[in-house]
Write a structure and sequence with these properties.
Length: 252
């Protein structure tokens, strides 16, 4: 990891959030709390920037592991922000039941669609709740993104799902840098050093990607720092997911 002044960078992010909220007369933030380090660090940053009373965390289980909810509560208890649970399992199941009207599909055929449906349902829920609590509390809530720089570079996110948000606090930090910020903010170790996974496929992020986040960070700094096989994997991931960043639009 390159020279990283965690105190300076963390304070800059906090100031960025405060300034944006002040300039735009905004009130609160809502974010999904997955029980992983990224959402925990983002929650910590917003608590520091806006105060815990203006942070609303949401757990969104969908055939999820119970440990994730336990870890999410660990984060909310530490920082003292409100945590609500909104179970979307039955919504997902209703969608799957409706799909049967289109025909019979194999598990292999629906696997990718099922995995990506969950973050899309979650983001729809977050935006619904943001609008709801904006009306209830008479202040504007934004939805915070929780993706880090390594994930974004290789396109490890769902278009129309976790790619959708109103403000992003850690998108320019690698995984190692996010961990350093987490240490600075005293994110509970159990969450901060938990093996990252999407909570959807029963695989770690690195298993799914086929590369380590540390290798992605090194590649972004200097691609010659990683071996040829890893270089090629990262290049392929980046290239194959470029469509997620830009929508081709015909202009007259």
């Amino acid at each position: 990891m390159r020279n990283f002044n965690v105190k300076e960078e963390t304070e800059k992010v906090i100031e960025f959030i405060r300034n944006y909220y002040k300039e735009n007369n905004l009130g609160g933030v809502i974010l999904g709390i997955s029980g992983g380090k990224d959402s925990a660090v983002v929650a910590g940053l917003f608590v520091e920037a806006l105060g815990r009373e203006n942070v609303l965390g949401v757990t969104l289980p969908c055939h999820s592991k119970s440990e994730d909810a336990i870890d999410a509560k660990l984060v909310s208890d530490y920082y003292g922000f409100k945590l609500i649970n909104f179970d979307i399992t039955s919504t997902f199941d209703a969608f799957k039941d409706e799909l049967k009207n289109l025909g019979e599909f194999t598990n292999k055929q629906v696997k990718n669609s099922d995995i990506n449906l969950k973050p899309r349902l979650r983001m729809s829920t977050l935006y619904y709740l943001a609008a709801l609590y904006s009306a209830v509390d008479n202040k504007t809530y934004l939805v915070a993104g929780t993706s880090n720089k390594c994930e974004l570079y290789v396109g490890y996110f769902t278009k129309g799902g976790d790619s959708v948000h109103d403000i992003s606090a850690i998108a320019d930090f690698t995984v190692d840098e996010v961990i350093e910020i987490g240490k600075y903010l005293n994110v509970p170790d159990k969450v901060l050093f938990k093996a990252p996974n999407d909570g959807l496929s029963n695989m770690t992020d690195e298993d799914k990607l086929g590369v380590k986040y540390s290798d992605i960070a090194m590649y972004m700094e200097d691609e010659d720092k990683v071996n040829e096989e890893t270089r090629n994997k990262i290049r392929k991931l980046h290239r194959n997911n470029l469509h997620k960043f830009n929508i081709p639009t015909y202009r007259r």
